[in-house]
Specification:
With about 280 residues, this protein is of the alpha/beta class. The protein has a single domain (about 1-270), classed as TIM Barrel. About 40% of the residues lie in helices and about 15% in strands. It is built from nine helices and ten strands. It has helices at about 35-50, 70-85, 100-105, 125-130, 155-175, 195-200, 220-230, 235-250, 260-270; strands at about 1-5, 10, 15-20, 55-60, 90-95, 110-115, 135-140, 180-185, 215, 255. The chain has an eight-stranded parallel beta sheet with strand order 8-7-6-5-4-3-10-9. A two-stranded antiparallel ribbon has the order 1-2. α4 links the parallel β6 (about 110-115) and β7. The longest helix has 18 residues, at about 155-175. The two termini are about 15 Å apart. The mean pLDDT is about 95. Bound molecules: 6-hydroxymethylpterin-diphosphate.
């Protein structure tokens, strides 16, 4: 399976690592560490040197209760980092829900739009459709970041995520975006309890029947804190285990903070023949 992006066709015969760059003061996992353009660019270079297959740049935290970021602030955070990242020889994704940020990023040559709202904002789908080669990651979220963790309810979380992702994929294809450009993400931690997230991991392979690659973002998420009893800064080992479990259950892409460790773990996973 391949993922067609603006500049690169990504071969998903082996699992790929998307490295996270949060150009934010307040991300739940690494807020403030890469908030300046210089620090964020240095982090991009480091992640590529560590073996990241894709860089994912975000300028607005989606953690529960994060304050909204204005369009101007988000553009000012993301675009200079994007310009630098585009010179590093790997596909670059922009993590945003704003169609204006998508448009500006795609005009500058971004390869991928990663949208936790799955292109549901008015105009978002049209912006991506206008860039014939650009790729998109559609993520499932129940509710909005501010309130999404207040008693999330599903009668069958896997079936409901599956139906949502299928519906959004159909809407994109109807809007002129080729299915080959789309990957799907069940959205770990977005309007889901610990049990919902773990159910999605156990039954993740069911989502492969949709027919598009799966991207999973377990890195440092609170469910791993619930399982291990560890604070966010101590969830590296748990994140690695979750990434491998996701890959073992068929994920073609993992979105992670700790790229070097994940790349090493996947090398061992492949050497053990687990990917065959
Ligand atoms: N998780 C976060 C942000 N964007 N995108 C996708 N496709 N999948 C995810 O699981 C996902 C995502 C949240 O993690 P992080 O970027 O570390 O934190 P914050 O939103 O606080 O910046």
């Amino acid at each position: 399976m391949f993922w067609q992006t603006t500049r690169f066709c990504i071969d998903l015969a082996q699992p790929r690592v998307m490295g996270i760059i949060n150009v934010t003061p307040d991300s739940f996992s690494d807020g403030g560490q890469h908030a300046s353009t210089r620090a964020a660019l240095a982090h991009c270079e480091r992640l590529v040197a560590e073996g990241a297959d894709i860089l994912d740049i975000g300028g607005e935290s989606s953690r529960p209760g994060a304050p909204p970021v204005s369009l101007d602030d988000e553009l000012a955070r993301v675009l200079p980092v994007l310009d630098g990242a585009l010179t590093l020889g790997v596909p670059v994704s922009v993590d945003t829900v704003k169609p204006e940020v998508m448009r500006a990023a795609l005009e500058r040559g971004a390869d991928i739009v990663n949208d936790i709202h799955a292109l549901q904002a008015p105009g978002a789908l049209e912006v991506v459709a206008r860039h014939a080669q650009a790729a998109v990651c559609l993520m499932h979220m129940r509710g909005e970041p501010a309130t999404m963790q207040e008693r999330p309810f599903y009668s069958d979380v896997v079936a409901e995520v599956d139906a949502f992702l299928r519906g959004r994929l159909d809407a994109l294809v109807a809007g002129g975006i080729a299915a080959e450009r789309v990957v799907l993400d069940p959205g770990i931690g977005f309007g889901k309890s610990v049990e919902h997230n773990l159910e999605l991991l156990r039954r993740q392979a069911e989502l492969l029947a949709i027919g598009r690659p799966l991207l999973l973002g377990w890195s440092r998420k609170s469910t791993l804190g619930a399982v291990t009893g560890r604070a966010v800064g101590e969830r590296g080992a748990a994140s690695l285990a979750a990434a491998l479990a996701a890959v073992q259950r068929g994920a073609q892409l993992v979105r992670v903070h700790d790229v070097a460790a994940t790349v090493d773990a996947l090398k061992v996973w492949r050497a053990a023949g687990l990917g065959e």
